[in-house]
Amino acid sequence: MPAILITIIWIGCAFWVISDVYKRTDKTNEKKLLWIILSVIPSIGIITAIAYYFLEKKDKQA
Predict the structure, then answer these.
(1) Residue 23 and residue 21: Cα distance in Å, rounded?
(2) Are 36 and 17 in contact (CB under 8 A)?
């Protein structure tokens, strides 16, 4: 059961990062590709979403 829950959270995080990176126009294609690749790797996808929030998204909200 915990593995299914983690998988669902990972898929949600990957979808959020990919959709947000795709919408942004202020990043280079290399940075976009890096965020997308890191978000779809299962072992680090959730950590990537957290890092994306603190490094990229939080700066835009302030």
Answers:
(1) 5
(2) yes
| Residue pLDDT, tens place only, 10-28 | 999 999 999 999 998 888 8
Q: Would you kindly state where each structural domain of the chain is located, as residue ranges?
A: 2-61
Counting Cα atoms < 13 Å in the Cβ hemisphere of 52 gives 25
Q: Among residues 60, 61, 50, which one has the least CA distance to residue 27?
A: 60
Task: Take residue 12 and report the two structure tokens written for it.
Answer: 């949600």
- Whats the size of the chain, residue-wise? 62
